[in-house]
User: Which sequence fits this backbone?
């Protein structure tokens, strides 16, 4: 991949947007503006940003409950995500979803799913529908390493391979299923090997390097569009913060977290840009100011947005409209 | 009007829907090459091909979830689950995704999916193939629950379910597949959510659904010989329930017996009793009664299984006790 200054700026800005957005979330959570479960993505930004770079508007994404980053880079506005976290009607799910259930039909963002592994079968069906209707698009299923222990992971990989479905499986292996390290729960900790056993083309990649992720994802999407067969990417990454805001994080050493922070996505990218001689061209102050602005506006928007009227509580349980 | 079996009626509904809408397809275990474990889909593979009659592995959760995904992405899938007991493996998908996506997404994503499955006891299949769990599913907002008893409904309900923009579960009692009846494929179907008075009466209302409809009609016949005129109502749809028809009948008969093949505790019959209590208590001349399956996992031995399930004689006995005849 030829890293132009424009691309460099885009990658850096998007990663920083996720980082700053979520730092703001921590603040707002402590101020009790945001409630419920809040799972932060800090440390994993390179995966979302690299992946988003490979996708076109037609492709669909199904993500997990740690999906603020994916939603933001998919083009759901920070305002709309923040209003959702506030439980306001202008949120991307009208305040009915919250942090774990972001949805947006416009950008083909299908969640926001909080049942571990539960989105994988949906991705199989989405891709099946594309195949049946001869549409050249890709469904991306994003999940964590914890999902690998679920039966649905294996059922879904089997079906995707058997039926030759256009799915990009993206495992964000952040090494921990909630608070339990992978080595305590998996007999095979190289997750891509499980996919290979289902005859799926699979790769393990460095999930801390946005350029490497973008490259691998672009290649994968091209393969899928060409062959209509699934591809599996295992992205090795790490979350710098606890599983959720309720997690006391007693299960890992501070030294381990420090070690991973040293190879954090922003740090790695900075080195890359320095090597390419582009770092000094990046106007860091301007980028930081722009992002600050976006976040300030998002918070202001969320603060001022209305609550859905209680009379509408029972809306959207049943649809009266057939979708076509 | 033609005489047909319940099985043929379901098949005809699938066939008609697939012929008129390219988005409709059938997916499930043994639905293709085998012809359907209850032979419902026999011949459809030859007619529509492997692309639309899709054999799945024994992966209930994922092929049900795949049905949800396909529905989200523009198709009209019919997922066949072999028997209600196996649907429990797919309960996560049915409950956490099919029933919730519309609401969680603030109205953006509906799931026009039909899930069909066989239900009910009476074939000596033991405790893992014989239960009637439709009442459980009827607990869940976001789902519609249909229980066709008649050949006409077997045809109509599959068609109605496919036209509905919501996830609809159709429970076909396995003992009904060979039943014969008149089928009029051009008749205007009774909508989802409407109960049907199968036999008018004035002394007692018997509320029922599925195979228990026929046991209730048999009981009503016996009762008539003893001068008790029972009204028999086929609920047809367990969610939504037709409160209006139920309460109107009670206002007429002032007595009610509910026949439900589920277990009594926490059952659909319990829900119906609660609603009657809320909406029609002062119409009642006697305490409400119900005939349910005994609180046991269904046994294999025929005499025990028969004893566990609601039967016509139990319905007769319950009604007679209620009207003070026995």
Assistant:
């Amino acid at each position: 991949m030829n890293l132009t200054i424009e691309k460099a700026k885009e990658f850096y800005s998007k990663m920083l947007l996720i980082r700053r957005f979520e730092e703001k979330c921590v603040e707002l959570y402590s101020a009790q503006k945001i409630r419920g479960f809040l799972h932060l993505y800090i440390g994993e930004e390179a995966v979302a940003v690299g992946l988003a770079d490979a996708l076109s508007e037609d492709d669909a994404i199904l993500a997990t409950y740690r999906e603020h980053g994916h939603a933001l880079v998919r083009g759901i506005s920070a305002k709309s995500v923040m209003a959702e976290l506030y439980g306001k009607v202008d949120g991307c799910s009208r305040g009915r979803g919250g942090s774990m259930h972001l949805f947006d039909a416009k950008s083909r963002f299908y969640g926001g799913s909080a049942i571990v592994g539960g989105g994988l079968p949906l991705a199989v069906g989405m891709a099946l529908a594309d195949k049946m209707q001869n549409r050249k698009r890709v469904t991306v299923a994003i999940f964590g390493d914890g999902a690998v222990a679920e039966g649905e992971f294996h059922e879904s990989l089997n079906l995707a391979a058997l039926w030759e479905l256009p799915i990009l499986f993206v495992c964000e292996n952040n090494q921990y299923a909630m608070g339990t390290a992978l080595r305590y729960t998996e007999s095979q900790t190289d997750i891509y090997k499980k996919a290979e056993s289902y005859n799926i083309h699979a790769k393990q990649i460095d999930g801390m390097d946005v350029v490497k992720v973008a490259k691998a994802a672009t290649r994968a999407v091209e393969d899928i569009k060409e062959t209509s067969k699934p591809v599996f990417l295992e992205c090795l990454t790490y979350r710098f913060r606890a599983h959720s805001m309720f997690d006391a994080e007693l299960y890992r050493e501070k030294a381990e977290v420090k070690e991973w922070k040293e190879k954090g996505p922003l740090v790695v990218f900075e080195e890359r840009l320095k090597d390419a001689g582009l770092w000094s061209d990046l106007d860091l102050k301007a980028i930081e100011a722009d992002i600050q602005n976006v976040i300030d506006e998002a918070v202001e928007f969320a603060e001022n947005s209305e609550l859905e009227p209680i009379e509408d509580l029972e809306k959207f349980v049943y649809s009266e409209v057939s979708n076509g | 009007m033609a005489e047909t079996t319940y099985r043929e009626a379901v098949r005809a509904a699938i066939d008609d829907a697939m012929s008129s809408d390219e988005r409709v397809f059938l997916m499930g275990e043994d639905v293709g090459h085998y012809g359907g474990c209850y032979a419902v889909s026999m011949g459809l593979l030859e007619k529509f091909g492997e692309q639309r009659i899709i054999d799945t592995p024994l992966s209930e959760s994922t092929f049900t979830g795949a049905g949800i995904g396909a529905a989200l992405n523009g198709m009209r899938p019919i997922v066949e689950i072999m028997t209600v007991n196996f649907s429990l493996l797919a309960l996560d998908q049915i409950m956490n995704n099919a029933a919730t996506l519309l609401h969680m997404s603030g109205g953006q994503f509906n799931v026009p999916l039909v899930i069909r499955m066989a239900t009910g006891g009476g074939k000596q299949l033991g405790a893992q193939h014989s239960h009637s769990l439709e009442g459980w599913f009827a607990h869940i907002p976001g789902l519609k629950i249909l229980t066709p008893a008649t050949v006409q409904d077997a045809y109509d309900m599959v068609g109605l379910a496919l036209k509905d923009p919501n996830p609809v579960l159709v429970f076909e009692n396995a003992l009904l597949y060979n039943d014969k009846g008149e089928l009029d494929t051009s008749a205007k179907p009774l909508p989802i959510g409407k109960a049907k008075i199968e036999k008018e009466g004035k002394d007692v209302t018997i509320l029922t659904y599925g195979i228990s409809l026929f046991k209730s009609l048999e009981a009503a016949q016996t009762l008539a010989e003893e001068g008790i005129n029972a009204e028999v109502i086929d609920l047809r749809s367990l969610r939504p329930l037709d409160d209006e028809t139920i309460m109107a009948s009670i206002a007429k008969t002032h007595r009610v017996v509910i026949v439900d093949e589920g277990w009594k505790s926490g059952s659909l019959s319990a829900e119906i009793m609660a609603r009657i209590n809320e909406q029609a208590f002062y119409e009642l001349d006697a305490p409400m009664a119900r005939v349910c399956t005994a609180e046991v996992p269904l046994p294999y031995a025929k005499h025990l299984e028969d004893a566990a399930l609601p039967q016509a004689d139990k319905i007769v006995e319950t009604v007679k006790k209620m009207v003070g005849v026995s």
In short: Chain A has a mean pLDDT of 96. The two ends of chain A are 41 Å apart (CA to CA). The longest strand of chain A covers residues 167-173.
